[in-house]
Each structure stands twice: as C-alpha cells, then as structure tokens.
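Below sits the subject:

***
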Amino acid sequence: MAQLLLIEDDAHMIRVLSMWLTRNGHEVVEVGDGMSGQEAIEERSFDLVVSDVNMPRMNGIQFVEWLRVEKKSNVPVIMLSSRSDQANIDERLGELGINIYPKPFSPSRLVEAIETRLEEAATVKGDSALGG
C-alpha cells in the first residue's frame, strides 16, 4: 500500500480519484491547494503526489517547484490539467521530471500510470540501496 497525497480543489475530482486510489489499496491524504500540500509534506512522507495545476493560494506548478527546489524531494508527481496552454505547462513540468495528464481522463488509466510510477520509484530506490 502506497501513501499518496492528492492535491485538488474540485470536490468531485477528489471523491472520484480518492475512491479509485483507495479501491486499489492506497492510503490517500486529500488537500485542496498547494499550500495545504506543503503542510502535508512537512508532516509526513508520501510515495507519490497527484496534483491539479490550477488551484487557489498556490498552484500545482508552484507546489512542485517548492517540492523539488526547497524540499529537494524526488517523490514522483503526476499533474492533472485542463488548461489550454498545455504546451507551456508540459515544458515547465518536463524540466522538473513531472508527468502531466490532461483532463478529462480515464480514472483507470490514471491509476495504471500511478502504479507504473510507484514501481519505477521502487526500482530506483532498490538500485540506490544496492549502490547502483
């Protein structure tokens, strides 16, 4: 079971994603914006973060920049976006090693992507432990 942080300001999206992720055996902590995401990261560690791009107080890109630069964390992040300037977002997030999924999306496909990222992260951790 992975510990997942879900940062999303849309209540319906939170319900749907949280249901799919818990149904697949994950523990999900839900917060409504990037600042609340920062607080959650300060309180505990997570195996993966799923975040919306557009949110009040602190958007998803600002959150990821904080996570990578200030926290120096390489926790896997998957971003969700319905923005029309997708190419600009893809470029900025690509530099930070972030996958982005445009809305609307299939919840089952997103869960598959999350499982893949968790497996990749576990492999990297295993390689690091072996000195690789």
